[in-house]
């Protein structure tokens, strides 16, 4: 007997169990998203990274309209971002001089915007694919991946980061990256829900993947190996310059004095590393100071690496350009040093104005003040050359992009990242940022030097473990040794492509399965 679409929907509604009231469901979803923050640094309650997506999965399982599924996913995503990225409030209100009420509205709008990723996850999960753990985990990874590029990207709050130091699961990171860790964790979370519903069959895939990751952890394969050269001695300088003073013209000389004073006892080390924009002026304006530092570095056989805004006057065409292009950069100088790295991933509205060209045709909106943006560095940049080694670089926010860091790591012996997290005060933001650096070290099998203005300054080994760490908000020097390593992890060779292929295959099979089931019910 063939059923009409109307009759089928009527039958489904008749069989549908009574669910929670919509308002309560949305509240639970919001709280489930909000609690995820405690799975990440500095709290590191990793079981919450299973509980949080498990609750969303359970809320989406009953039969419901697409609108209801979207609202549940949207509520979850809004809670995730409003609480998980609340550290933005410090930069917006404290250092951006935005009134508190307006800063809170901006955070809420950001949460609503970023929440759309989970809103559409709920919609697609409800309407287009079969409702089971594999499709849920695949959709989860898809939306995490989209956050690395859509609208320039905001790659934060990934489930995989909660397991950075849980090596029974993060052992998958050097094989297939953070998304592989996220996939297994979310699959396990959803499968546990099915287990509670007495549908144990879905646990098979979870157990198999967990067994694989645990086996990798126990076997401890060395994807990369020591280069065979002596470890490199490094001194990471943490100037602790207050953010409200850092860019003041009258404080620039004081900033240079602070860094020069902290460095005075470190000459003779192999590498001295200063943080992002620790020289708060263009290289052309600080040439005298730079020459003095280079002279000292060469006299003591030291490589000096520093963050600095770099103005490329050679690329300036007065007939076509308003001003020379300038970059957020890191430069290697002194003994056995060469190279300049220009930041590729810029912070929207912080380092550049999106759609800046529109202001040229809207002069009244632009006002009389000249708007200048950093230029974007090329993707094809050579590593820095230091002490006979290739040194890969990542500046601040761009270390959150797995693929950008992967490409910068290829052909290098160790890595550095410099940052100025003073924008986020005592919030969890800088510690979440550090956790991402740990994951990047694990993915690429490379040691990381991380020098920051206010913290967290640290040395991280190729397994993502923090070897040395300086206290936050102190003017200090972190000393240690870094090991050069050679070889490529599987992730360095192929990136996210295997995981994305599996995700696409699972979603296609789930879509076809749902379609076939629907046609069978309709008797077609």
How would you characterize the overall build of this protein?
The chain is an alpha/beta fold. The chain folds into 2 domains: 234 residues, no CATH class; 263 residues, 4-Layer Sandwich (Nitrilase/N-carbamoyl-D-aminoacid amidohydrolase). 45% of the residues lie in helices and 14% in strands. The protein has a 7-stranded mixed β-sheet, covered by helices on one side. The radius of gyration is 25 Å and the shape is globular. About 1% of the residues have low confidence.
Overall form: globular
Indicate the radius of gyration in whole angstroms.
Answer: 25 Å
Q: Give the class from helix and strand content and strand pairing.
A: alpha/beta
Strand elements, count: 15
- Average pLDDT, to the nearest integer? 90
> What low-confidence regions span 5 or more consecutive residues with pLDDT below 50?
365-369
CATH class of the largest domain: Alpha Beta
> Can you tell me the CATH topology of the largest domain?
Nitrilase/N-carbamoyl-D-aminoacid amidohydrolase
What's the architecture of the largest domain, going by CATH? Answer: 4-Layer Sandwich
Distance between the termini: 10 Å
The residue fraction in helices comes out at: 40-55%
Order of strands, widest sheet: 6-8-9-10-11-12-13
Biggest pleated-sheet summary: 7 strands, mixed
CATH superfamily of the largest domain: Carbon-nitrogen hydrolase
Number of domains: 2
């Amino acid at each position: 007997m063939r059923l009409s679409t109307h009759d089928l929907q009527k039958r489904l509604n008749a069989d549908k169990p009574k669910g929670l009231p919509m308002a309560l469901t949305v509240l639970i979803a919001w709280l489930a998203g909000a609690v995820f923050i405690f799975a990440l640094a500095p709290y590191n309650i990793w079981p919450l990274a299973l509980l949080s997506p498990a609750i969303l999965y359970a809320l989406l399982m009953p039969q419901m309209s697409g609108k209801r599924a979207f609202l549940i996913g949207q509520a979850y995503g809004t809670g995730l971002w409003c609480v998980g990225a609340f550290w933005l409030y410090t930069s917006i209100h404290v250092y951006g001089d935005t009134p508190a009420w307006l800063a809170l509205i901006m955070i809420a709008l950001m949460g609503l915007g970023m929440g759309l990723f989970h809103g559409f996850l709920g919609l697609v999960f409800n309407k287009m694919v079969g409702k089971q753990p594999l499709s849920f985990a695949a959709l989860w990874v898809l939306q995490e991946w989209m956050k690395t590029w859509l609208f320039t990207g905001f790659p934060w709050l990934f489930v995989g980061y909660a397991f950075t130091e849980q090596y029974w699961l993060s052992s998958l990171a050097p094989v297939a990256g953070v998304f592989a860790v996220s996939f297994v964790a979310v699959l396990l979370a959803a499968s546990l829900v099915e287990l509670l519903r007495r549908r144990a069959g879905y646990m098979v895939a979870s157990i198999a993947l967990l067994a694989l990751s645990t086996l990798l952890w126990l076997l401890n394969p060395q994807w990369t190996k020591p280069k065979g050269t002596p470890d490199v001695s490094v001194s990471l300088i943490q100037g602790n310059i207050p953010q409200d003073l850092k860019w003041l013209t009258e404080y620039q000389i004081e900033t240079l004095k602070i860094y020069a004073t902290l460095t005075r006892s470190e000459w003779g080390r192999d590498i001295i590393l200063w943080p992002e924009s620790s020289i708060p002026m263009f290289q052309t304006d600080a040439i005298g100071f730079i020459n003095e530092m280079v002279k000292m570095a060469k006299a003591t056989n030291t490589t000096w690496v520093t963050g600095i805004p770099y103005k490329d006057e050679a690329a300036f065409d007065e007939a076509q350009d308003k001003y020379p292009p300038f970059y957020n950069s890191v430069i290697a100088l002194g003994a056995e040093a060469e190279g300049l790295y220009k930041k590729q991933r810029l912070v929207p509205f912080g380092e550049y104005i999106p759609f800046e060209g529109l202001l040229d045709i809207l002069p009244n909106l632009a006002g009389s003040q000249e708007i200048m943006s950093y230029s974007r560095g090329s993707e094809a940049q050579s590593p820095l050359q230091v002490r006979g080694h290739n040194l890969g670089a990542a500046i601040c926010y761009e270390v959150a992009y797995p693929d950008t860091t992967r490409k910068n790591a290829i052909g290098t012996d160790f890595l550095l990242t410099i940052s100025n997290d003073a924008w986020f005060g005592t919030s969890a933001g800088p510690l979440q940022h550090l956790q991402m650096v740990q994951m990047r070290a694990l993915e690429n099998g490379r040691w990381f030097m991380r020098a920051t203005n206010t913290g967290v300054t640290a040395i991280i080994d190729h397994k993502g473990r923090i070897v040395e760490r300086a206290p936050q908000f102190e003017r200090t020097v972190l000393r240690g040794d870094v090991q050069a390593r050679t070889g490529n992890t599987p992730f360095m060779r192929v990136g996210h492509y295997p995981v994305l292929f599996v995700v696409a295959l699972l979603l296609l099979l789930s879509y076809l399965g749902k379609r076939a089931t629907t046609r069978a019910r309709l008797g077609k």
